[in-house]
Structures are given as C-alpha cells and as structure tokens.
C-alpha cells in the first residue's frame, strides 16, 4: 500500500464505508477509486482531488446557505399562509413539521454533499448508478425555477427604478383630459400601475400580446447580474452574499420598527397571532404547511448538496442544519410581523376612508330630507383621544339598518381578511401601504432593494444546483465552467422572454405552481428512500460518525425511514389528488371589470403543464433504465473478453474458490486495483458473479465459447 500523500493543496481523507454494490463495476478510474473502493485497510492514503474549490471561510458558506433558503417565499408566501390558516395555530403546525420532516431531510442533504463532495448527480450516482437520474431531475427543476424566478427579480428592478421620484408613480391615478382613467378609478392606483403600467397584461393566457420592452430590458439586467455574480463560481458569488444575505435583515428590522409606530399595527399583529386550533383538522392546511417547510429549506433542488460539497469533511453539518433551519423560521416570523404591521396600518386607513365617506353621505341625506337628528352619529374624525372607527361601528350596529343610503360597516377585520400573497402582496398591497408613509420614495426603494437581494441570493443557489453537478460529472464542462455559466445565463434569458410577453405573468404563475412542486416532492421521496432503505440509515449514520467523530442521535434513523418518507408520500398523494379532482386554474385580470377573476387553464396549457412535470421527473426512470442496460452490455462485453483471452472457452467450476484461468484473471484484476479479495467492494462482488457457477448448485452448465 502506498503511503498517504499530503500537500498544501490536497486534503487527505479515508472512506471508512464502501459504497453500495453497483452495476458499474468495471468503470474504475483514479477518481472513482477515490470514492468507491472499499475497506479501511485498503484505503489509507486516498487523496482528495486538489482541483475542487472550497469556501474561504465558514461565514461565506453559512451566508450562502441562509441566503438560498431565505427567499421571496419567506416574505410573501409564509405571511399569507399564516393569515389564511389560523394564525398562531399554523405557526405551531409549521414548527412541528419543521422538526419532524424539514430538519432531518435538510441534515440528510448536508451530510450527503459534505461526505461525498459531489453535486446532486454525483451523490446519488455514488450511492447507486441507477439513482443518478435523481440528480438530473434536480438540475431540470432548478432550471425551470431559474427561468421564472429571474423574471421576478426583473420586476423588482423595474419598481426599484420607479421608486426614485416623488410622488411615487403608483400613488395617484393618471388622468386624460382631466378625467381619471376608468380602469384605475375602479381598481386603485397601485393595482392599475401593476397590471397596466408594469405588465400591460392581457385578459387571459390565450391572448399572448407583444413583448413588453421595459420588462425585457429588466430581465436582461437581472441575468447580467446573476452571470457576473456566478462568473467565478462560489469564489465570486460568496463575496456577493456578504451583502445580499445580510441586507434584507437590516431592511426588515427597519420596517418592523417603523411599522410598530403606525396606527393599526397592533390590530394587524393581534389578528395574525390569534390561534384557530380547529384548522388542525383540515387536510388542506397540513398540505400547505408541509409544502411551505419543503420549499423554505430548498429541499430537492440540489443546491444544499452543492454548497455543502465545498465544505471540509470535518465541518459540523448537524449544527449547520439546526442553525439554518432556525434562522429560516425566525426570518419567516419576522417578515410576517412586518407584513401584518404594515397591512394593519393599511387596513385601518382604508376603514377610516370608508367612515369619512359614509359620514359625508349621511350629512347629504340630512340636509335634503327630514330625518331624525338623533340618528346622526357624533364622531370627530380629528379627535386623537378617541377611536372614530370604533365609534362609527358601534353606531352602525344600532342604527345602520334604520338609515337610508346603503351605508356599509367599515370593518378593519374585513380588510384584513382580504388576504394577498405573492406578487399581489409585494407589488400591490405593500406598495400601497408605503405610499402612506412619510418619505415614501425612500421606503419604496428600500423595500424593492430588499426583494432584489432576496431574489439574487436564492438565484445564486439555484444556479449552483445546476452548474456544480454538471461540472462534477463532465470533465469538458469543468474545464470550461465560465463558458458554461455564461451560456446558461444566455439560454435562460432567451427562454425567459416567454415571461415578458403581455401574458407572461400567467406563465410565471403556471411555472411557480406546477413546474417545481410535484417533481421536487418526487425527488425528495427518492432521496429519502435511497439513503434510508437502499444505502441503509445505519450505514449512513456510520459514515457521518466517521466524518464528524461523533454519532448523531439514533432518532434520525427512524425519522428518515418512516416519518419523513411517509410524510413526503402523503404530500405527493395530496398534491396529485388536488390536481386530479380539481381542474387547475389561474387568476386573470379583466380590463373591463377592472378586477381579478379565476379562469380554467385551456387544454393546451394543461398539456404544457403535463410536459413540464413529465420532463422534470423523466430522468429518474431513464437513469435506472440506462444504468441497467449499460450494466448488461458491460457484463456481456466482459464475459466475451474473458472467454477470448482463455482461448474461447470457460472452465467448469463448482465453487467460487477454484483455480481456473477465469478466477486467476479476476484475482489479477483485484490485485492490480489494490482491492482485497474479502472486500465488500462492488469490484470484488460483481467480478466474482461473472463466474458461470451459482453458489450451492450441483450441476453446472457446459462451458461454451463466447
């Protein structure tokens, strides 16, 4: 055995556990020997490839993982789910699922990437070549997500550019010949600016419309920023993370402090945390909570594996899993506090406008007709010592039905119940609230700069989930990684122009709802099954113990084998049932009605949905089939070669330990590759299986030439 090699640019480590027996038993190279040859006795001195990059510091890695996992969903998806599904009760359910499912699966991906030091394709190929398709599916889903995610970054750039003017362009409705535009008057200035000025949207997905030149330029700028940030891999993107991962927290804290000082913030936060425990009995709530945990941690994308693969093997990935998951949850809670404080202020302003409008109507009716003066409410809008909203609502409950004029109950709760999520929250509701702030351009620029950085940090991780597996498995791409990065961004921009049409927002919703959800759930189901049942949970824990020099709690074994796997299968089943029993729909903007409406996807759009889902999941069965056929072809080829070397015949043999030319040749092969005969290595096992006898068989077929 050659002694171990130590240089300043290499890192010595030992693979204490061999990989699973696989079908690629003859593909032995110095690189595969590093990861797949077996036995402690034979593995001393294996040297890690010196060419692999690494993080310059633990802080860079930590910021990268936090930046990827904390994204736009924490700001505009989690608050909506919390609002719609029982407030504090949903938080408790989310924490429960995070502990039982999220953290164990997150730890699994961190440990797999750090132990094997490969991207998603290499990790699952290492466990078994038949599972390589899992990594390719992750790459496809990452590409789908990158296509539409960068469009959202482009929208943020558009709003950021429009924030540097006073008053903000979405504060008031435009006028033509001193007449307010009808669509804006019926919907509101912020809604009108989003649908008409920013998107110039069509009435349905079937009306394509021309390209939006401004949004197209913003998309080009977004891809340019991503390309520059990824130009040198993690060496360049990690430096950007120092700002893009930290800056959103500064902005959220500023908004929280400012929001708590607003009138109505307390009502908004109280509304958020009020628990409705009865929602725990609804399957839909469990499905939404599990889906949010799943996406919040970025499971299945391969980005977590890619980032952790650049770590030293001694890094405490268990502590990283707990820390990143906790920060992710606290960030969601912080964002929810900010959103509900600001939306509470907005709801109160809308309710007060309603009170003012109704009081004006009452004054007009009393001035033109004989009405009982005792019915007129005594409310002083400008009196800060009293609450005019509560006074009006108290009056309305007693006298509202007795007064003509179709007055309304100006309820703050009704305004808060109008839950908004996604683009509706970021570009309409929150944007409207900021127009009411003193110094609104400053707050607007701060908010959209925060969205830009949240999107970029997630985009860096998504692109790393594509580039790292490909460069790890294809040497040509590794030698030209910069060209691969640039070409990927160019292709992403060209395909992304689909989303810059006037109907582009509908395609963004389609990709967001369907292109990633089902494929990622399927990927994570295979990941969990592969590690816990194919590779073996105990074996995986042994590998972690040798890597970290301490053994994780045994509870992870049962969580991986049963709880996580069953939870992901349940989530997959619930998602499939929802798609099967309810035709997929989307929210469209009707220009004539100046309001949103729910429409069914046309048949051709359903075909696109099916193609997206199939294309993303197809690599899993294709990888299995390809590996099986390749193994069969190699087995035949090896058998043919051995038979030819032996003069065209095999020698009959009734036991494995027999002195035949075939056995001698196999012994020579094992010795040449420094593999012990008693090693559980796939090389030893699979080569011995080439012998034409079966264990325990008394009669052996006659030898034939090949």
What does this structure look like?
The protein is mainly alpha-helical. Helices cover 65% and strands 2% of the residues. A two-stranded antiparallel ribbon has the order 1-2. Strands 3-4 form a two-stranded antiparallel sheet. Strand 1 (175-176) and strand 2 (179-180) form a beta hairpin. Helix 5 packs parallel to helix 14 (283-296), helix 6 runs antiparallel to helix 7 and helix 24 (517-548) packs parallel to helix 26 (603-617). The longest helix is centred in the middle third of the chain and has 52 residues, at 317-368. The model is unreliable at 1-50, 645-663 and 679-706 (pLDDT under 50). It is a multi-pass membrane protein.
Summary of the model, kept short:
With 706 residues, the chain is mainly α. The chain is built from 29 helices and four strands.
The Rg value, from CA coordinates, equals 31 Å
**How many β-strand stretches?**
4
How would you characterize the largest beta sheet? 2 strands, antiparallel
How big a fraction of the residues is strand? under 5%
Mean pLDDT value = 79
Approximately how much helix is present in the residues? 55-70%
Unreliable runs, pLDDT <50, ≥5 residues?
A: 1-50, 645-663, 679-706
Q: What is the count of DSSP helices, taking H or I runs of 4+ residues?
A: 29
Strand order of the largest sheet: 1-2
The shape is elongated
Structural class: mainly alpha
């Amino acid at each position: 055995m050659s002694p171990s090699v130590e240089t300043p640019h290499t890192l010595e480590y030992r693979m204490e556990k061999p990989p699973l027996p696989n079908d690629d038993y003859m593909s032995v190279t110095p690189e595969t020997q590093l990861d797949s040859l077996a036995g402690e006795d034979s593995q001393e001195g294996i040297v890690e490839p010196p060419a692999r990059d690494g993080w310059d510091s633990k802080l860079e890695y930590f910021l990268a993982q936090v930046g990827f996992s904390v994204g736009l969903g924490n700001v505009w998806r989690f608050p909506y789910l919390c609002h719609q599904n029982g407030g504090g009760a949903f938080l408790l359910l989310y924490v429960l699922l995070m502990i039982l499912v999220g953290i164990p699966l997150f730890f699994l991906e961190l440990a797999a990437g750090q132990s094997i030091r490969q991207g998603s394709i290499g990790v699952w190929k290492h466990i078994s070549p038949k599972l390589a398709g899992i990594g390719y599916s992750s790459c496809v889903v990452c590409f789908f997500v990158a296509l539409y995610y960068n469009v959202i970054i482009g929208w943020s750039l558009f709003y950021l550019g429009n924030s540097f003017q006073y008053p903000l362009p979405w504060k008031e409705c435009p006028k033509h010949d001193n007449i307010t535009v009808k669509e804006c008057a019926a919907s509101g200035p912020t809604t009108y600016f989003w649908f008409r000025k920013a998107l110039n949207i069509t009435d349905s997905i079937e009306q394509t419309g021309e390209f939006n030149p401004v949004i197209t330029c913003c998309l080009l700028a977004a891809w340019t920023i991503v390309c520059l940030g990824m130009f040198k891999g993690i060496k360049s993107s990690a430096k950007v993370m120092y700002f893009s991962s930290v800056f959103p927290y500064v902005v959220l804290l500023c908004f929280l402090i400012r929001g708590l000082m607003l009138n109505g913030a307390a009502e908004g936060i109280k509304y958020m945390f009020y628990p409705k425990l009865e929602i725990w009995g609804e399957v839909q709530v469990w499905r939404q909570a599990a889906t949010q945990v799943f996406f919040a941690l970025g499971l299945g994308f391969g980005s977590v594996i890619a980032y952790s693969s650049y770590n030293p093997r001694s890094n405490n990935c268990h502590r990283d899993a707990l820390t990143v998951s906790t920060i992710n949850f606290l960030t969601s809670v912080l964002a929810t506090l900010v959103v509900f404080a600001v939306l509470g202020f907005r709801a109160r302003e809308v309710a007060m406008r309603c009170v003012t409008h109704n009081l004006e109507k009452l004054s007009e009716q009393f001035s033109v007709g004989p009405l009982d003066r005792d019915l007129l409410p005594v409310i002083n809008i400008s009196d800060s010592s009293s609450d005019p909203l509560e006074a009006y609502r108290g009056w309305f409950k007693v006298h509202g039905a007795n007064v003509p004029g179709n007055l309304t109950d100006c309820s703050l709760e009704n305004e808060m119940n109008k839950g908004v999520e996604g683009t509706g929250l970021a570009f309409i509701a929150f944007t409207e609230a900021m127009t009411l702030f003193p110094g609104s351009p400053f707050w607007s620029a701060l908010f959209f700069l925060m969205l830009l950085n949240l999107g970029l940090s997630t985009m860096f991780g998504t692109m790393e989930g594509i580039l790292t597996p490909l460069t790890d498995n294809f040497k040509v791409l590794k030698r030209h990684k910069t060209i691969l990065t640039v070409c990927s961004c160019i292709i992403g921009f060209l395909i992304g122009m689909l989303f810059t049409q006037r109907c582009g927002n509908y395609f963004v919703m389609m990709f967001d709802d369907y292109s990633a959800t089902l494929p990622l759930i399927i990927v994570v189901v295979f990941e969990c099954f592969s590690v816990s049942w194919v590779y073996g949970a105990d074996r995986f824990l042994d590998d972690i113990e040798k890597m970290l020099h301490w053994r994780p709690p045994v509870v992870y074994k049962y969580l991986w084998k049963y709880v996580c796997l069953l939870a992901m299968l349940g989530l997959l089943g619930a998602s499939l049932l929802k798609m099967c029993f309810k035709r997929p729909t989307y929210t469209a903007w009707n220009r004539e009605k100046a309001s949103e409406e729910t429409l069914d996807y046309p048949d051709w759009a359903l075909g696109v949905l099916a193609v997206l889902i199939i294309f993303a999941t197809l690599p899993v069965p294709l990888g299995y089939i390809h590996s099986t056929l390749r193994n069969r072809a190699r087995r035949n080829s090896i058998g043919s070669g051995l038979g030819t070397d032996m003069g065209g015949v095999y020698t009959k043999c009734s036991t494995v330990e027999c002195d035949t030319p075939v056995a001698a040749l196999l012994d020579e092969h094992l010795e040449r590759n420094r593999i012990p005969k008693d090693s559980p290595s796939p090389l030893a096992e699979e080569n011995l299986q080439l012998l034409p006898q079966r264990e325990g068989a008394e009669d052996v077929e006659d030898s034939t030439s090949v």
